[in-house]
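Before the break, one more example. Copy the sequence into your notebook; we will annotate it together after we see the structure.
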Amino acid sequence: MENFNPKTDKIAVVLKEFTLKKKSDPFYRKYSEPYIVSMAIDAEGANSPAIDFNVLSFPNVRKGDTIKFDGRGHLIYGPKNPGSFLAYTALFMENDKDIRDTGEMVEKIVKSEAVNLGIKAILAAQPTWATAMTILQKLSELVSIQLQKNKDDELYRRNGTLLRDVTPPYDILRTYIGENDFIKAHVGIIPLKESNKLGCPIKKVNL
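Here is what the structure looks like once it is written out:
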């Protein structure tokens, strides 16, 4: 993209669509309620330790359904300029209960596990993309374990690292497709000046 300035322009990492290929328990309930927990650390978040966080639930999803998002998609990160790097993770879970304030519960778990891991001290000592990615991989694992204690099931997990000083910077305009037995997901990296305000806004968890 010729007019994109990687040192000043904003990007977004978005979930464009996903398919529920299989339920975690095929004999329990007609509908599922998958939800997505996304976390990201960019260069600023590594140097002033903070995690960008988002969670979104999808009630009444049946096996084989494909959820597509209007506009740009569901925000995993941004719109923001990441600096020299961005590391992110997206965790797909299946809600085992009919009613729950999933977002509030997950945010508390993320904050608690981040403290338990000592993320602030780790990033302060080595604020690099490799450190950020290692932290997010471990944090998503611990968050999943806590959610499974509430009888939720992990469906799928994916990670990514985007770098500024490559061609194209941050891999903009690319879409990555990943899947396992339960989920098939399309994640895109796009230049984006501002959110369309249609989805859940990104929250920042200061460490």
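The mean pLDDT is 90. The radius of gyration is 17 Å. Try to locate both features in your own notes.
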